[in-house]
């Protein structure tokens, strides 16, 4: 409701300013609205101005639309990045709670649980960095390149959570580029 009132007030003020600038101010300065039949209009000059406006306005509108769409995409990326960061923070909190409950119960983490935690961390790293290589992920996770490649390959082929550029085979570990899903 508050925004509707604000919009109505803004439109009213804009209309009042337009009327003031186009009718009241010229009338105070002595201009009168009259229609003179004795005035000869130069339609060639009017046509020349109209053709210039008709030629330049579409070009300006194209640039304006590109600028506006760029701003929308920029805002969308910022929102998605903040959403990703928030989701990652919540997942980290949940993982910490799970880990503390397992430690307090005296349970050791199984290899499947370690693998799933490494997968989560690798996915977060790829999503945050946007574009990365296998070596950077392995350094971040503190594991070998081969293990990191296996995790990333599973995220790519099984979970379909990330994308890759290049051949995703063991012989091309250093040549694969890992990217987040768009």
Describe the overall structure:
The chain has five helices and three strands, in the order H-H-H-E-H-H-E-E. By secondary structure, the chain is mainly alpha-helical. The longest helix has 63 residues, at 43-105. It has helices at residues 2-28, 43-105, 111-129, 134-141, 145-157; strands spanning 131-133, 162-165, 177-180. The chain has three domains: 1-32; 58-108; 112-182, Winged helix-like DNA-binding domain superfamily/Winged helix DNA-binding domain (Arc Repressor Mutant, subunit A).
CATH class of the largest domain: Mainly Alpha
Strand order of the largest sheet: 1-3-2
CATH topology of the largest domain: Arc Repressor Mutant, subunit A
Query: What's the structural domain tally?
Result: 3
What is the helix tally?
5
Strand content: 5-15%
Name the features:
single chain, 182 residues, mainly alpha, Arc Repressor Mutant, subunit A, 3 domains, three-stranded antiparallel beta sheet, 5 helices, elongated
